[in-house]
Amino acid sequence: MADTTKSAKADDDITFGDLTEQNEAPQSTDQEDPESVLASFRKEWRRELESHGSSTPGTPSRSHPCHPRLPQVNQSQEESLESLNSDDGVETDGESNAVNNTSDKKVDDVCSDIELKATELFNRAVELEQSKRLYEAIQHYRRAMTLVPDIEFRVHRKSMLERNEVDTEESLQEEDLSREEFQDLIARFQLLVASTHAVCIPQFEQEAPHISCLPPEMLDRIMCWVVGNDLDMRSLEQVAQACRGFYLVARNPEIWHKACLRVWGINCGLPGPYGSWREMFIERPHPRYNGCYISRTTYFRQGDCSFQDQNYQPWHLVQYYRYVRFFTDGTVSMLTTPEEPQSVVSHLRTRDSKISQVVRGHYRIHGSVISLLLKKKARERNSNRRKGRRHFGGTTDVAETIFQIEYDLRSPKDRLHWILAWRNYIISYITYDNKKTVTDVDVNDVNKFPTLAFSRVKSYALVSDVPLC
């Protein structure tokens, strides 16, 4: 390169200065090929870059990284440039634009090459640092920052963009799988199972017969036992996760059709808007059977003054729970007690509970509304003669109490059929004289009548007494 330098000039001057330097005579410049000129420029730049990288780097350059260090223009090059421009008198606009474009391309190429070299040095420094070769890592960091001072931020930004692109592609692929592939997942599994001629294949060799030896009819019967009379569809979904063959058996539409008939009976209809019996059972409103709905009511009640201290006014904190347990045969049990759920839910597993306070009845489903009709009978009225007087058992004349309740079945967020909201509550008292008193209870007060939330009870699905039929 030339020893003497002048102040910064336009890109055109630099470009033509390089041309005159390579050819030494302005008369032969017009005959040179631009591609060869560009190639020679790149070679000289790489030679300068290698010599600069091999030397001990000092303080990082403060020049902008997008502007590479181009060869300086000396006075002889400027004179040759002027003589070159004055050969033909006036230069056309097309030739000037072509020269400008060539110069811009050179600058862009050099800029990209410098950044690429700096990125390679920075990545190599990261690898050396991870391998605990700190001295060599520092040298590579210095060389990279000498070429591009903000190379660390550029590499980080580039890696973040690539990571976002990968995440976007993965999310799009997952959406495509969920939309397209899972739609024909059953058909694909059927082809795979048909090729092996078996529902499943044993993973390890065993002497006893494997479950894959059973015929499909027997496997369907086993799945009906898994579901049971209490419609434990959660256990059926867990069985479907075992293998492809069990997935197909658990997705048998006949099993889900029986479950829908068990819930809605003659009002079941067809799964037209839902697409399948399984989707109908999952999305159509109905109570859950593998647990019970629980609510807790808390309020303060004013107590009686003590006869010893009339100025003392006691207050009582009253807290009680309401439990509602639905069964698949249309029966329902309700219990109101101050006992905690841990000690109560086990007694509501069967229809015939040993707790005397349990009220039993029936329920009907009307869309998202569940209507309950429960009856509670008083103790039998016994008449005994004692010393010539008639004694009646009990302290009330009410022979029977009827509860008519309507709940609105709601699904908060992703919990389907999880909440029972009060809709209507009517209590009827029937005396021994066949007199009836009806009381319409206001259920708009949420504090007195809170919603009932579902709670799954594991013990309800431990044993299956009767298969689904």
Automatic annotation (TrEMBL):
<keyword id="KW-0833">Ubl conjugation pathway</keyword>
<feature type="region of interest" description="Disordered">
    <location>
        <begin position="1"/>
        <end position="106"/>
    </location>
</feature>
<dbReference type="Pfam" id="PF12937">
    <property type="entry name" value="F-box-like"/>
</dbReference>
<dbReference type="GO" id="GO:0005737">
    <property type="term" value="C:cytoplasm"/>
</dbReference>
<dbReference type="InterPro" id="IPR036181">
    <property type="entry name" value="MIT_dom_sf"/>
</dbReference>
<feature type="compositionally biased region" description="Low complexity">
    <location>
        <begin position="74"/>
        <end position="87"/>
    </location>
</feature>
<comment type="pathway">
    <text>Protein modification; protein ubiquitination.</text>
</comment>
<keyword id="KW-0802">TPR repeat</keyword>
<dbReference type="GO" id="GO:0031146">
    <property type="term" value="P:SCF-dependent proteasomal ubiquitin-dependent protein catabolic process"/>
</dbReference>
<keyword id="KW-0963">Cytoplasm</keyword>
<dbReference type="Pfam" id="PF19270">
    <property type="entry name" value="FBO_C"/>
</dbReference>
<dbReference type="GO" id="GO:0019005">
    <property type="term" value="C:SCF ubiquitin ligase complex"/>
</dbReference>
<feature type="domain" description="F-box">
    <location>
        <begin position="211"/>
        <end position="262"/>
    </location>
</feature>
<dbReference type="InterPro" id="IPR036047">
    <property type="entry name" value="F-box-like_dom_sf"/>
</dbReference>
<feature type="compositionally biased region" description="Basic and acidic residues">
    <location>
        <begin position="41"/>
        <end position="51"/>
    </location>
</feature>
<protein>
    <recommendedName>
        <fullName>F-box only protein 9</fullName>
    </recommendedName>
</protein>
<feature type="domain" description="F-box protein Hrt3/FBXO9 C-terminal">
    <location>
        <begin position="275"/>
        <end position="377"/>
    </location>
</feature>
<dbReference type="InterPro" id="IPR001810">
    <property type="entry name" value="F-box_dom"/>
</dbReference>
<dbReference type="InterPro" id="IPR045464">
    <property type="entry name" value="Hrt3/FBXO9_C"/>
</dbReference>
<feature type="compositionally biased region" description="Polar residues">
    <location>
        <begin position="52"/>
        <end position="62"/>
    </location>
</feature>
<feature type="compositionally biased region" description="Polar residues">
    <location>
        <begin position="20"/>
        <end position="29"/>
    </location>
</feature>
<feature type="compositionally biased region" description="Basic and acidic residues">
    <location>
        <begin position="1"/>
        <end position="12"/>
    </location>
</feature>
